[in-house]
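Exercise: predict the fold of this chain.
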Amino acid sequence: MLSVYEGFFSGGARIVHSDVVLGLVEGGQQDHRVLSIHGEVHREATRQRMEDDACYRSLTAAGVGVTSLGRSFPASRDQVGFTGPELADTARATAEADVILSLKEQPLRLLNQAGLPRRPVVVCLHRSDPENQGAALDELKAAIADGTVVACVCCAESTRAAYQAAGVPGELLHVIPNGVDLLRFRPDPAARLAVRAALDVPADAPVVIFAARYDAMKNVPLFLASARAWLAREPRGHVLLCGAGMTRANPGLVADIAAAFGTDPLLTDRLHPLGVRHDMEHLYAAADVVALTSSWGEAAPLCLVEGMMCGAVPVATDVGDSAAIVSGHGFVTPPDPDAIARAWTEAVTARSDLAPALAASRERFSRTRMIAAYAALIDGVHTRATLPPALPDPL
C-alpha cells in the first residue's frame, strides 16, 4: 500500500488518515508506505516541516516508511510542473504498491501524470465542498474517467452527497465515518485538573475549547465574537484556542482578537491561544464544551468527535455532518454570536445530564470500526485488481 499526501501539516484529515494507516499496519495484513509531495508547508502563519509533524513522527515510529519529493508550499515559480527526478521517485514508489490511497483529491495532480505505473487508486475525501477544491475536482473526474480511481472513501454522508452532486458516480462513493482511539480520548479527571492548573484556570470554572487551524472556513471571527459575548456573561469562564496559527505570533489572529474584544480588552485575560498541541485528549478533558463555528467545507469534524469522547459537550454550526454528530449529545446553533454564547452556557449546565448519552455513543465513534471498514474496502479493491480478465462469451 502507498498513501500519497499533499504534505504533512496540522489538520483533521491528516490525523485521521495517518491513524488509519497505523491501524492497518497494526493488523499485520498490509504493508504501508507514505509519499508526501511537500517536505514543508507555510500556512496558517506557521512554517510546518514534515519532520516536526506529529503524524509523521507516529508513522515513522511504527516503522512506516515516509518519503517526500521535497517541495515547499507555496511553490516557487519553477515548481509548477513535476520534474523528471520527481516523477522517477513517484514511479518507483507506485511500482512497489498494489493499491494507492490518495489523501484527498489534491495528490491526483501527481498521480495523473503520464507514464507512471498503473495501480488502482482509492481517494479519501474529507470535505463537503468539492466546488471549492479548484482544479483538484477536475483531476478527480479525469482519474475516474480513465479508470485509475476505482473507489472514493467519504468520511461523511454530506461528503458523498456533495461529490455525487458534483458529478462523481455514486457507486464509487463509500461512506466510512471518522473514528478515534477510545483508549486515548476519554474523560480523564486527573488530566482535567492538571491542564487547568497549568493554565491558571480554576477547577470549577466553565471552559470552552476551540480546536481548529486559522483558516477562513473555520470562521474564527464568529468564534471570537461568540467568545466575547460568553466571557462577558460568564465572569469565571475561560476559552482555549488550539491549532495551527492559533497563537499571538499570528498577526491575523491578533487583529481578529482586537476587532472582537476592542471595547473589552480585559476579557482577553481569559482567552488562551495555545497553538498546535500534541496532548489534545488532555485539553478536551479539561473543557466543558467543544465548539465549532465553521461556515463551509466541514464533513465530519474530528474536533467534535474527540471532544465528545473526552466528555465535552459539542456545540456546532450546521455544516457538513455536524448536526448528525451532535444530535442527542449537544447543540446546533445558527451563525450568531449571541445564540452561540447562550448555547455554550446551556451546554455547561447540561453537561452532567448529557454524560450518559455521550458515554453510550462511544462505540459509534470507534477507531476499530473505522479501520476495519477501510481494510475491507482496500482488500476488495485489491482482489478485484488481481482477478484474471473475464473471458468473452462464446458465440
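Check your answer against the key: The longest helix spans residues 337-360.
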